[in-house]
Amino acid sequence: MTVTSDRPAEVGMARLRKEDERLITGRTLWTDNITIRGMVHLAILRSPMAHARITGIDTSAAAALPGVIAAFSGRDLADEQGALPCAWPVTDDIVTPDHPALAVDEVRFAGEAVAVVAARDQATALDALEAIDVDYEPLPVVLDMEAALADGSPLVHESKGTNKSYTWIFDSAEAGTGGSIDDAIAEAEVHLSRRYVQQRLIPAFMEPRSVVVEPTGGSFTMWSATQIPHILKLMLALTTGIPEHKLRVVAPDVGGGFGGKLQVTPEEVIALLVAKRTNKPVKYTESRSESLQAAHHGRDQIQQLDLTARRDGTVTGFGVKLLANMGAYLGLVTPGIPILGAFMFNAIYKFPAYRFDCTGVFTTTAWTDAYRGAGRPEATYAVERMMDELAAELGMDPMEVRRKNWITHEEFPFTTVAGLTYDSGNYEAATDQAMSTFGYDELRREQAERRDRGDPVQLGIGVSTYTEMCGLAPSRVLGALKYAAGGWEHADVRMLASGKVEVVTGTSPHGQGHDTAWSQIVADQLGVPFEDVEILHGDTRTSVKGMDTYGSRSLSVGGAATVMACQRVVEKAKKVAAHMLECSEDDVEFVAGTFKVKGSPGSEKTIQDIALATFAAHDLPEGFEASLDASATFDPENFSYPHGTHLCAVEVDTETGMTSIRSYVAVDDVGHVINPMIVDGQVHGGIAQGIAQALYEDAIYDAEGNLVTGTFVDYTPPTAADLPAFTTSRTETPATTNPLGVKGVGEAGTIASTPAVVNAIVDAVRPMGVTDVAMPCSPERVWRAIQQAKDGAR
Amino acid sequence: MTAISVTVDGVKYDDDVEPRTLLVHHLRERLGKVGTVVGCDTSNCGACTVLLDGHGVKSCSVLAVQADGKVVTTVEGLLPTGENGGLHPVQKAFHETHALQCGFCTPGMMMAACDLLNENPDPDEREIREGLEGNLCRCTGYQNIVRAVEAAAADLREQRGAGSKTEVSS
Is residue B114 classed as helix, strand or coil in its secondary structure? Predict the structure, then answer.
């Protein structure tokens, strides 16, 4: 058997992905590619109104059509469907309305599911929807959060008597982590108040949601395009009453998620119940229009902000009054999303006083929930815009204001005013590297020249220095925040008889390249070839325990569990090696896949030798169980805190309002890097999604509550032609809170890029009197902001 | 029902189809060619792009009956060159430049890239970005896709320069 001691370390290498072959040859197992003999196809009738009482519903004509197997309304399934779960009730007195998968008596957003048809093929099922007769009695809609909280507002849930879901407050003076924002305001040399709107976004994963359910003798197997097979299995059991051990959930290849597939969806519950009722395999795949209308949305917050500072640029306090749109219902973690942001409004800074006050509000719109970054992009946007406003107010350079307030490298670990302890970071290094790559000083000079000569195309420079909390999460912290589950992650490592390795992770990838990154980690830990490692995931039958993939947790929690399991395998193998080499365990050392007797060259066994000997079990140490398998569960002590500095230069045509990005430089510190190629890819995609919020995307409802951005024509996710090339690089300050030293990368780009772009646009036109442009910063909005500033100056 | 005869990835298929059947549904549901996927219902995302008689089309915008008598190439039929482990230069370039993450847009993106390179064998970055404007990707930010197309173009030009008869597709 080959020894691998001459192989370079896998970790840190830009290994090409194992996942790619099936993806580039069209042999991918998307859920919608699954066909089961006897399978029927579902189509879902959706409400055309944002708010209405269902006074009558008749599915009999649909059920009688040729090729139709069954048709059900919410009333038909009312006894079985339970209520969709909210696993993060952030306060004791939160208002949590019932959320049936199929609406029973009332619909509360346009696109809510009201009936389902099962037919021999999808076209027949879609045709049959036309034959369902629903009588709606229109009810008043309420779309605006501030209007929803006003006295006499129409109620989304009449029986609850309020549109307020909860209020959640953190005050550093009460928590003992800092001073009082009221005192800071009373004593302030500078006090800035601003109102920013985080527009509603749609995750818009490329693979539409799809679910297949196969019933077999009282058990059910569900394939679903989900990020969370393990959580989904438990929640489906709690929702429908089907016992947990009778459910198997498989996430096959999943085409993107971005938080949008971190959900227990009505469609999954409906498919499960129809399979149960008809005892046939069923498939449901949504159309893109259904996806945009009825899969959960993200962001949608109104931020009222107070920043206080001394005239030398030192910030003395930060206050946040937040309205967070829940939509019509609470999804799996809806109320918790803004609370994640609560810990990030102080960002990388030493703010002495801080208060966060969040109210969750119901409206007759699709529910909101996790979207890439979830709570942290919103917070970072607010603080990074405010730092620029402070710089402008004081006539300081935006970089100088940041340097004056950030936590310096020597000060780590640092406990912030929000109560988190950042374990490591080096904001100076990332920022210096970004400024040098960007050519900051040269661009400032060019900007001054263009301003001096009154160039109609102005240059703007935007910065965003950010951190985020990744690696969700320490279970005790989640418990304190009333999250229903823990934040641990699990791994099983199995040495097979031939010396090959099967690794099971409880994380569930959807494009992040886990097979490759995990193979690199395991190859180094066990000293086996990269090719000899197979990664299994996303099936609750093989991956029995897990908490899935979201919040940039996979590597820092799941990867860490894998390292621990590998170390246990090596410990076990060492016992067998010592026995075979007839020496004490203390005399055996493990180097690159080989157990050697210290001081006795040539006396050695490879880990593959040990695997075979363990399998044969002819001569093992006394009491040794014949297995080289090990499991580990890792529950981190702390989050991890990636950080970085992004710089964006834009050219704004002041005559048309058109913005074009001239250059974009990102320096991220995500701790140790397992695969730099994958990290760069994640950063690129993240930046693109953040730019999309800054410039293009906005989920808009009309006055009646219809989603007018209900197709890709209207929602306008950016194309290749809309985006620039990015310059990315890294600094490496290892995390101290997990054995890999990794911090997480999936959300970094999205968090950083939105404020960098908007800061750049405002910087370009600030001399014209513009102090803000609402997102997305379309040419029309930029142009209007310029005109308004001119009118104000006249 | 209408009788049609379509050659898909080198195999001739004779079928009766409903006149309303879209080519993408015919490929996926009747012929089992599920390498081509559906990403939207407005022809914006390009995930279902295939070559029809060598030209890129969004197969959700073509009726199956319109493909009668024609040749369709899907991702499953990209010509292997015999080198590079049987991958087509475009597939190889997507793999080697990490031009895919979740991979859902990838078949359509690669077929659009083939179409682009058939028309313009030496595109610059702007031409590539505009050439792929009809295909959406949510994961990569497009940067590595652009690099992949540049790499595939160079590879194909080199092969043509060496006198090989390699075409972008059949």
Answer: helix
- A-chain residues near B45 (CB < 8 A): 206, 288, 712
Instruction: Outline where A34-180 has alpha helix (H).
Output: 60-63, 74-81, 122-129, 145-149, 172-175
Beta carbon pairs, A and B, within 8 Å: 175
Q: Does A681 touch chain B (CB under 8 A)?
A: yes
Which residue, among A310, A300, A326, A398, has the nearest Cα to A86 in the 3D structure? A326
Say whether residue A665 is in contact with chain B using an 8 A CB cutoff.
no
Location of structure tokens 């072959």:
A21
- DSSP three-state, residue A341: helix
Q: Residue A450 class from Cβ within 10 Å (0-12 exposed, 13-18 middle, 19+ buried)?
A: middle
Residue with tokens 């893109």: A288
Within an 8 Å CB–CB cutoff, is residue A21 touching chain B? yes
In the stretch 569-608 of chain A, residues with CB closer than 8 A to chain B read none
Which candidate in A16, A21, A25, A122 is best for mutational testing of the B interface (most B CBs within 10 A)? A25
How far B93 CA sits from the closest chain A CA (Å)? 10
**CA-to-CA distance for A376 and A298, rounded, in angstroms?**
12
CB A38, CB A281: distance < 8 Å:
yes
Other residues' Cβ atoms within 10 Å of the Cβ of residue A702: 12
- Through-space distance between the first and last CA atoms of chain B, rounded to whole angstroms: 29
Do A368 and A337 touch, CB atoms closer than 8 A?
yes
Q: Which helix (H) or strand (E) holds A461?
A: strand A457-467
Q: Which residues of A touch B61 (CB under 8 A)?
A: none
Q: What's residue A52's pLDDT?
A: 98
Q: Which residue of A has its CA nearest to B109?
A: A24
Average pLDDT for A207-231 = 98
- The gap between the terminal CA atoms of chain A, to the nearest Å, is 83
A266-278 and A229-240 helices, crossing angle to 10°: 60
Confidence of residue B170 (pLDDT cuts 50, 70, 90): very low
> A199 vs A147, A280, A368, A692, A699, CA distance in Å?
17, 42, 12, 11, 7
Residues of A in contact with B103 (CB under 8 A): 19-20, 23-24, 28, 253, 255, 511
Determine if the peptide bond prior to A739 is cis (ω within 30°).
no
| Residue A24 to residue B125, Cβ atoms within 8 A | no
pLDDT tens track for B35-94: 999 999 999 999 999 999 999 999 999 999 999 999 999 999 997 655 556 899 999 999
In degrees to the nearest 10, what's the CA dihedral of A635, A638, A639, A644?
-140
Strand bridging mode A298-309 / A282-285: unpaired
What's the confidence (pLDDT) of residue B86? Answer: 85
How many Å apart are CA A415 and CA A365, to the nearest integer? 38
- Residue A516: CB atoms within 10 A of its CB come to 24
Residue located via tokens 């190629």: A677
Sheet with A247-250: strands ordered across: A68-73, A113-119, A40-46, A282-285, A210-216, A219-224, A247-250
For A601-615, what is each residue's pLDDT tens digit? Answer: 889 999 999 999 999
Q: Does A24 touch chain B (CB under 8 A)?
A: yes
Q: How far apart (Å, rounded) are the C-alpha atoms in residues A343 and A329?
A: 24
Alpha helices (runs of H) in A171-298, residue ranges in sequence order: 172-175, 181-187, 229-240, 266-278, 288-294
The SS3 of residue A325 is strand
A712 vs B42: CB contact, 8 Å cut-off? yes
- The separation between CA B37 and the C-alpha centre of its own chain, rounded to angstroms, equals 11
Distance, in Å, from the CA atom of A134 to the CA atom of A114, rounded to the nearest integer, reads 9
Q: What share of chain A is helix, strand, coil (3-state, %, to 5)?
A: 35, 25, 40
